[in-house]
Design goal:
Distance between the termini: 38 Å
Helix content: 40-55%
Strand order of the largest sheet: 10-7-4-9-2-11
Number of helices: 13
Number of domains: 2
CATH architecture of the largest domain: Sandwich
CATH topology of the largest domain: Jelly Rolls
Strand content: 15-25%
Order of helices and strands: HHEEEEEEEEEHEHHHHHHHHHHE
CATH class of the largest domain: Mainly Beta
CATH superfamily of the largest domain: Regulatory protein AraC
Largest sheet: 6 strands, antiparallel
Length: 307
């Protein structure tokens, strides 16, 4: 907790409940505790993919999640922040956020029209088949041709015409595959960054030295290019990937100790320190209190296409 944060709030957040048994955390308070939220991509019901249309009233703060995400700027201008960097976007831009990469819409023009597409990691890998590594290319800003923009924007609207979840999922999968085919022909970012992303997502416990050995580069080169392309240090990104796996394992029934070791942490105490520093609370508070669900409910999902 920040030292200048009210002591009563710190105690309530740390304990996970107030006198009524509810977590007394609101958006402004929690954002004062952590700089970046862990917030899963909002996928409705049993679906494995979702398309949302941005609404200014539901803009979300800086966040990261395990689901890969694409942003299609259909009209207008704006800017996004990621790590310590920012990028300007305009009509026809396609951006990709790799799992664990923080991102936030910083500004938007009055005519800004943004489609947000996200899939579960499992569905993304199945849809992309032999090329799942394309989701780990890092933050990519690709300017589409007018024809490509019209095609993708039309595909974003198509699922709204059908209520069947299978039809919707198939349509989202086709859009995902097409969008990544546009990205595949562009080598954006340094080769060492792309290799580092693949290695870390496949093996969260891998060391920087081992990444350098497998990539035929030096540890210094690895760190320098990763920070430039992703906006955050390799060590910070690797910690997020481990945390995402830790959360998934605990949700799947593993004990905290089992999940910590399987996720790539050397010990539970190490996992606890990283969890507390990154997410602003202890693992037990996160999994046993209402804090987690309150955060997800407070920051409402973007407006769904059919609404």
């Amino acid at each position: 907790m920040p030292r200048n944060f009210p002591e009563s709030v710190c105690k309530n957040v740390a304990s996970g409940a107030d006198r009524t048994g509810r977590v007394p955390v609101v958006a402004a308070i929690f954002l004062a505790v952590v700089a970046t939220l862990y917030q899963p991509f909002p996928i409705a019901g049993a679906a494995r993919g979702q398309i949302w249309r941005h609404q200014p009233s539901t803009r979300r703060p800086r966040h990261f999640h395990a689901e890969p995400e694409l942003n299609l700027v259909a009209a207008g201008r704006g800017s996004f922040g990621f790590g310590a960097q920012a990028v300007e976007v305009a009509t026809g831009d396609l951006l990709c956020w790799t799992p664990g990469q923080d991102h936030e819409l910083l500004s938007a023009s009055d005519d800004f029209d943004l489609f947000v597409i996200g899939l579960t990691p499992e569905l993304s890998e199945r849809v992309l088949g032999a090329a799942p590594a394309s989701t780990h290319r890092g933050q990519v800003q690709l300017r589409l041709s007018p024809e490509q923009l019209v095609d993708l924007a039309a595909r974003c609207l198509f699922p709204a015409l059908h209520g069947d979840i299978v039809v919707k999922e198939h349509a989202v999968g086709d859009l995902w595959r097409l969008a990544h085919s546009f990205r595949a022909v562009r080598n954006v970012g340094h080769t060492l960054t792309r290799r580092s992303l693949c290695f870390v997502n496949e093996h969260p416990d891998i060391s920087r030295a081992e990444i350098a050995r497998r990539s035929h580069g030096s540890p210094g080169e690895i760190s320098r290019h990763f920070l430039r392309d992703m906006g955050l240090p390799l060590s910070a990104y690797r910690a997020r990937v481990r945390l995402l796996r830790f959360i998934d394992l605990v949700d799947g029934g593993s004990t905290l100790l089992q999940a910590a070791l399987t996720a790539g942490f050397g010990s539970y105490s190490q996992c606890h320190r990283v969890f507390q520093a990154t997410l602003g609370c202890a693992p037990r508070v996160f999994f046993t209190s209402d804090l987690r669900h309150m955060i997800e409910d407070t920051f409402a999902p973007l407006a769904e296409i059919e609404r």
